[in-house]
Amino acid sequence: MTRVRPPLVASLGDPAGIGPEMLIKAWTARGPERLAPFAVVGSLSLMQAIADNVPLASVRAVDRLEQAADVFADALPVIDIGSLAYTPGAPSREGAKIALASLERATGLARDGEASALVTGPIAKAELQDVGFAHPGQTEFVAEACGIAPQDAVMMLAGPSLKVVPMTVHVSLASVPGLLTRDLIVSRIRIAAKALARDFALPEARVAVAGLNPHAGEQGRMGREEIEIIAPAVEVLRAGGLDVVGPLAGDTMFHAAARANYDLAVCMYHDQALIPIKALDFDRGVNVTLGLPIIRTSPDHGTAFSLAGTGRADAGPTIAALRMAAECAERRAEQAA
Q1: Distance CA 235, CA 242 (A)
Q2: What is the CATH number of domain 1-148+292-337?
Q3: In this structure, are residues 237 and 244 in contact, taking their beta carbons and an 8 Å threshold?
Q4: What gap in Å lies between CA 42 and CA 53, rounded to an integer?
Q5: 183-231 pLDDT, tens per residue?
Q6: In whole angstroms, what separates CA 309 from the centre of its chain?
Q7: CA–CA distance, 15 with 42 (Å, rounded to integer)
């Protein structure tokens, strides 16, 4: 088992989604999956109701995160923040309040050094906004809580086959060209390279940068963003000593032979990055926030309300997020020693 101290902390996510059940299933697989100790900030009554329907599952309340390691072998430690009935697949205002309180408490524990890393469960943004959540997503919330500007928190999707960073995320495709700038690309790749060195043992990461247009613009015949924005950004990065190539044609970047030539693929928009990683690592992909003083990971899936309570949801992404968080924390601890 990976030895990480202090324990990891996980936020609940939306209580009506699959997040809580996935955390319980991950705990039941702690031995064969060699998971480091973790605790969940959430509702003990809800977690108990779920555990009653999961074979071999057990939960136990803890008052402080430091107690989690002693409890973890026998039960999933839960820092109880309020009673809540279990209504799978039916998001509610009360559930959203618990989800927000869980995220706030868990983030604070990681920020204050009481947890070695933060793993966030999937949320329903619309429900959270109804109870005062004013951020586009959890990434921006965690960044602000850590004193980091949202634009300096970089989303990376990572799996066994591929790591990708999209330059733009939840925006319309039509708005992407206007959002891309040389400075944006340079800043985010520098943040990513620093994080890959610190948390992923890649001190000289090889970065491949995709073009925006088909065939990387084909020398301006299909668009000039590659010539005017992306190539100049690559030159700045290379002049600064980073191993960066591009812009490359997005349709030939992701086959096995091409992937062997880089450690990170940087893409210009959401689907250019997420389609290949979900095709390759659908059940093992992890959302990692780079550029934070803390380690934050999340399973790369949503609340899946339609699967909640059915027992059919796969805990693989949650296990992968917990394992990656622990591995990154271990690397940081080794560097600090």
Answers
A1: 10
A2: 3.40.718.10
A3: yes
A4: 18
A5: 999 999 999 999 999 999 999 999 999 999 999 999 999 999 999 999 9
A6: 23
A7: 9
Q: Residue holding tokens 């039941």?
A: 28
Q: CB of 47 within 8 A of CB of 78? A: yes
CATH 3.40.718.10-classified regions of the chain: 1-148+292-337, 154-291
Which of 109, 128, 165, 175 lies closest to 290 in space, CA to CA? Answer: 165
Place of tokens 């947890």: 115
* Superfamily holding 154-291: Isopropylmalate Dehydrogenase (3.40.718.10)
* pTM of the predicted protein model: 0.94
By C-alpha distance, which of 154, 156, 103 is closest to 127?
A: 103
| Strand-pair partners of 248 | 210
Long-range CB pairs of 198-203, under 8 A, 24+ apart, other chains included: 198/331, 198/332, 198/335, 199/290, 199/295, 199/328, 199/331, 199/332, 200/328, 200/331, 201/331, 202/263
Are 72 and 40 a contacting pair, CB within 8 Å? no
Cβ-contact 23, 318 below 8 angstroms: yes
What DSSP state is assigned to residue 120? P
The per-residue pLDDT for range 259-276, each reduced to its tens digit, is: 999 999 999 999 999 999
Dist. CA 71–CA 66, nearest whole Å: 10
For tokens 């469960």, the residue is: 121
Amino acid code (one letter) for 119 = V
